[in-house]
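Task 17 of the worksheet. Students: predict the tertiary structure of the chain below and write it out as structure tokens. Keep your answer in the requested format; marks are given for formatting as well as content.
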Amino acid sequence: MMSIDERLKWFSKMGAFLVLLMAAGGPVSAQETTISGLFFGDYYAVLSHNDPDIEGANGFWARRMYLTFDSRLDSEWDSRVRFEAATAGDFETSRTMEPFLKDLWVRWRRGNQRIVIGLSSSPTWNLLESQWGYRAVEKTPLNLFKMGSSRDFGVAFQGSFDEARKVRYHVMVGNGSSTKTETNKGKKVMGALQLFPTSNLIFEAYADFEDRPEGRDRSTYTATAIATGDQGRVGFLAARQSRRTPGEPDVDVDVYSVFGVLDASEKINLLARWDRMNSPIPDGGGISYFRMNSTSKGNFFLAGVDIAVNDQVHFVPNIKVVTYDTDGIDSDIYLKTTFFITF
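Model answer:
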């Protein structure tokens, strides 16, 4: 863990690096570079939990902070540098937020085609997260259940096959190491095909294959359908991840999810979600801010009310419940008030 002095030095170096980048490109106007940010956290109380050490826990969490620099280099090239700071969220570790690079990429654009080089968003749940719209309240299912990563270092190809952009694609070849450095010879290949038949319907098919050490390869397949309208949106996800272990039967992790967001008024949205874990979640015990049992099938329920103070400040009282199919495992009940601020 970095000391305060080490963090100050780290931010100073990165700040100097950004200044040098801007200086190298000549004078920077407000139209060429924009700075934005996001900060979110909760007040939480664990009313019930299958782990007695967690039951009764409560307090304030500052979960994430993003600081983003977007730069237009010329008519065909742009870039992004994004820093993230996060807490551990394991109910045990007490430390200040640790900063790291979330995005570091350069992008070439011509017409409807894009090539992105560097540390960038993977196609694994990009579409679903944008339509769900409440990453601050809870991650999308594959993200929550640790079945992939939102980022990878590599090369991505994005675009559409038609001028109307009704058929789109996002293909990426990366290290499979998320925001961390490469530590093995294998790579991860990801691809999403999206259909926009009307202005209100979206369909996506996604698949990936990850070449992992010692033959512990993984492959993931998802299908997504989303309908939007003037009063809100609904979405459906079906996902399967096959995990291979040499000398043992393959393990299939199956997840289904349905969500809905209702625009109740100009300032209030209602949100709800149900995730069906049709198999135990192997990494459930390591989920940040939301530890769950890893031996049983179960259900995850979420309900909340988004109260917009203004366009930048939101408060979302919400409740999250996990029930398990196996008798004798207590349900997990989290009562939270989430806040998120954009700037």
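Marker's comment: The chain is about 10% helix and 55% strand. The CA atoms of residues 261 and 271 lie 4 Å apart.
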